[in-house]
Design the sequence.
């Protein structure tokens, strides 16, 4: 039986989601008119959390693969993203889904062989390896996260050079622990 893996590329405005069947979608945050308030940030967090929690509850994946915190970022946007990520981590814990956390540089190496790859290079690599073009960069990144998760579980979607796979051992995995 093929493992059910979800890839999630979180962003405050629009997040990419790669589902177990290989389809992708975006989760678009509620639009804000005027200056963003704390209530707007909470509504955004709630919207993303509710969507992902629903997907986790319905599909019961073996694993959700998520980019780990970028500790080098120091901004209000980085803090909002960390809050959203914390909510997703909690949703995984509540639904019993295994969580895999991937360093963004390691994801880029997995996809392209370079830790400094651009979004365009990630998209080119997806087209070359999987024959897929994505509507958004967020969906492309989510697909790469899903593919990495499948590889971690021993079911790679396509062959990659060892140089691309060298950081798989560095992925942090929180085993399934239901609330």
Sequence:
């Amino acid at each position: 039986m093929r493992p059910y893996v979800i890839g999630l590329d979180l962003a405050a405005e629009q997040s990419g989601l790669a589902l177990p069947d290989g389809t992708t979608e975006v989760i678009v945050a509620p639009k804000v008119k005027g200056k963003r308030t704390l209530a707007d940030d909470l509504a955004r967090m709630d919207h993303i959390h509710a969507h992902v929690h629903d997907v986790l509850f319905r599909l019961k994946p073996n694993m959700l693969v998520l980019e780990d915190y970028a500790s080098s970022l120091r901004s209000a946007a980085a803090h909002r993203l960390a809050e959203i990520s914390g909510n997703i981590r909690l949703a995984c814990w509540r639904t019993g889904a295994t969580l895999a956390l991937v360093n963004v540089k390691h994801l880029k190496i997995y996809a392209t062989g370079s830790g400094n790859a651009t979004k365009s290079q990630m998209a080119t690599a997806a087209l070359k390896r999987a024959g897929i073009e994505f509507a958004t960069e967020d969906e492309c990144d989510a697909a790469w996260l899903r593919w990495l998760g499948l590889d971690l579980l021993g079911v790679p979607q396509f062959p990659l050079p060892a140089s691309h796979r060298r950081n798989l051992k560095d992925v942090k995995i929180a085993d399934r622990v239901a609330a």
User: Anything to note?
Assistant: The first helix runs from residue 38 to 59. Helices lie at 38-59, 76-95, 104-112, 119-130, 137-152, 162-165. DSSP finds six helices and six strands in the chain. The CA atoms of residues 52 and 177 lie 18 Å apart.
